């Protein structure tokens, strides 16, 4: 029997909080400046954090 496919929410739950928070806020359409403030990074560093968050999400086995 094939393993059940995890949902995006399940995969996000497996990430460290700053990464899952950033991705969830982005999914909800929150502005980048607000996301950066919420996760405690400078706005200039948000793109890098988001790239890492997406890589960590992929490492859970979840792919869009």
Write a brief structural summary.
By secondary structure, the chain is mainly α. Helices cover 61% and strands 0% of the residues. α2 (17-27) packs antiparallel against α3 (32-39).
Describe this entry's structure for a reader.
The protein is mainly α. The chain is about 60% helix and about 0% strand. The chain is elongated. It contains 4 helices and no strands. The model has no long low-confidence stretch (mean pLDDT about 90). The longest helix is centred in the C-terminal third of the chain and has 14 residues, at about 45-60. It has one domain (about 10-60).
List keywords for this structure.
64 residues; 0% strand; mainly alpha; 4 helices
SSE arrangement:
Elements: H1 8-13, H2 17-27, H3 32-39, H4 46-59
Helix pairs in contact: 2-3, 2-4
> Whole-Å distance between the termini?
23 Å
The H-and-E topology, N to C, reads as HHHH
Give the strand tally: 0
Give the helix tally.
4
Taking the sheet with the most strands, its summary is: none
| pLDDT < 50 stretches | none
Average pLDDT confidence is 92
Our estimate of the beta-strand percent is: under 5%
Number of domain units: 1
Class from secondary-structure proportions: mainly alpha
| Helical amount | 55-70%
- Radius of gyration of CA atoms, rounded to a whole number: 12 Å
* Tertiary shape: elongated
